């Protein structure tokens, strides 16, 4: 069965600083029409940074939609057209002060494909060299180091809830065998 949907009409319903939301009328494979509401997002990056003792660098920050502080990997939004590798290196330096001698892609994550076009590029950083953090003026976070094995346990127990962190940690666990 053909699964493609053809866009018949597209209407912008919100054009914000980060999100651009549109309502599309589509033609379904069965010939009927349907409405799709889509949040366009420029995408993002996250970095699982492991120091020489296999401690992971985590940031804690208040996440407004959930009204709580979440622990997650250093991450950030891509500028439209920005190279994800360079953005990940930038975000790692800004949020942790670290630069990586070894930088490996862990692939892409589609966090919510039912309504959002965001793609998060995940990376593993090792051979860290530390300097100063350089947070954005509207960014407030705490940095901590946690043994990677403890982080894996926190992911598996549900203590860590952030999707990009969960995906990157579990992929790295399998790839590294730690």
Structure characterization notes:
- The chain has 178 residues and is α+β, with helices and mostly antiparallel strands.
- It is built from three helices and ten strands.
- The N and C termini lie far apart (42 Å).
- It is elongated.
- The mean pLDDT is 95.
- It has helices at 84-96, 148-157, 163-176, and strands at 6-15, 20-27, 33-40, 44-49, 55-63, 68-72, 75-77, 98-109, 120-130, 142-147.
- Strand 1 (6-15) and strand 2 (20-27) form a beta hairpin.
- Strands 7-4-9-8 form a four-stranded mixed sheet, sandwiched between helices. It has a three-stranded antiparallel sheet with strand order 1-2-3, with no helix packed on it. Strands 6-5-10 form a three-stranded antiparallel sheet.
Give the strand order, joined by hyphens, for the main sheet.
7-4-9-8
Estimate the global geometry from the Cα principal axes: elongated
Residues in β-strands, percent: 35-45%
The number of helices is 3
Fraction of helical residues:
10-25%
What kind of sheet is the major sheet? 4 strands, mixed
Which structural category fits the helices and strands? alpha+beta
Radius of gyration: 18 Å
**What is the ordering of alpha helices and beta strands?**
EEEEEEEHEEEHH
Secondary structure: number of strands: 10
The low-confidence parts are: none
The end-to-end distance, rounded to whole angstroms, is 42 Å
Mean pLDDT over all positions: 95
Present the secondary structure layout:
Layout: E1 6-15, E2 20-27, E3 33-40, E4 44-49, E5 55-63, E6 68-72, E7 75-77, H1 84-96, E8 98-109, E9 120-130, E10 142-147, H2 148-157, H3 163-176
Parallel strand pairs: 4-9
Antiparallel strand pairs: 1-2, 2-3, 4-7, 5-6, 5-10, 8-9
């Amino acid at each position: 069965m053909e699964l493609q949907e053809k866009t018949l009409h597209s209407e912008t319903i919100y054009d914000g600083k980060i999100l651009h939301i549109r309502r599309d009328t589509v033609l379904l494979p069965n010939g009927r029409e349907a409405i799709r509401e889509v949040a366009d997002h420029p995408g993002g990056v996250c970095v699982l940074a492991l120091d020489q003792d296999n401690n992971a660098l985590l940031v804690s920050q208040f996440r407004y939609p959930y009204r709580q502080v979440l622990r997650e990997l250093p991450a950030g939004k891509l500028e439209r057209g920005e190279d994800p590798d360079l953005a990940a290196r930038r975000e790692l330096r800004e949020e942790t002060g670290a630069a990586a001698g070894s930088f490996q892609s862990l692939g892409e994550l589609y966090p919510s494909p039912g309504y959002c076009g965001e793609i998060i590029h995940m990376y593993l950083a090792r051979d860290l060299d530390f300097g100063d953090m350089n947070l954005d003026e509207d960014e407030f976070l705490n940095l901590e180091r946690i043994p990677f094995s403890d982080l894996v346990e926190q992911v598996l127990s549900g203590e860590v809830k952030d999707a990009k962190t969960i995906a990157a940690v579990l992929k790295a666990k399998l790839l590294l065998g730690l």
